[in-house]
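re: ur question from yesterday

yeah so i grabbed the chain u mentioned. its 201 aa long if i counted rite. heres the sequnce exactly as i have it in my notes:
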Amino acid sequence: MKRGRPRDAAKDEAILQAAGDLFMEHGYEAVSLDAVAQRAGVSKATIYARYSDKDALFAAVLRHECERAVSSDSFAPDPSQSVRDTLVVLATRFLDLVTGEKAMQMNRVLVAETGRAPRMAELFYETAVLSLKNRLADWLRLETVRGRLNVRDPDGAAWRFLGGVKGEAHLRASFGLPPVEPARLKHHIEAAAEEFIRAHS
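ran it thru and got these structure tokens back, copy pasting raw so excuse formatting
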């Protein structure tokens, strides 16, 4: 173990925030550690004390953003809600996650980096996508035990529900088109929840 002063959490956050903003704004290749240090208000030595190189910093930013996006409090079902209302809430939060501006920026950077560093895409998939699916599947198992649903394949059902919810909204966001009108999006989410309940009642 290294001796000395403990790491400054504020500097950790400043570095991740600055690097994340720069990577999303300019892409991986165009960002230097000097630029990250300048925006974060730290020295480059401070960054190197935490991350061995730019790849390691990019991976840390990706993990940080994913964990914040799918934190337990951002995707936690309320046990007092009806199954329908819970599905509507989860679907709405999921769409906010995958169609938001930051999500689209992250997706573009990842696509650009897939050939050079495929592990980055795997990291995003494992930390954000798979984690979120697992939480939904765990909730479906719980609701099956409680008797409010009858889901024989929770993992498969979770994938199908999330995939169906993405629908047009995610495609439009991916192509940079205007979003689906709020009323039509609300109807889509409610219909997806109701169809899921009919399939697993």
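noticed a couple things. The longest helix spans residues 118-146. also Residues 48 and 142 are 45 Å apart (CA to CA).
anyway ttyl
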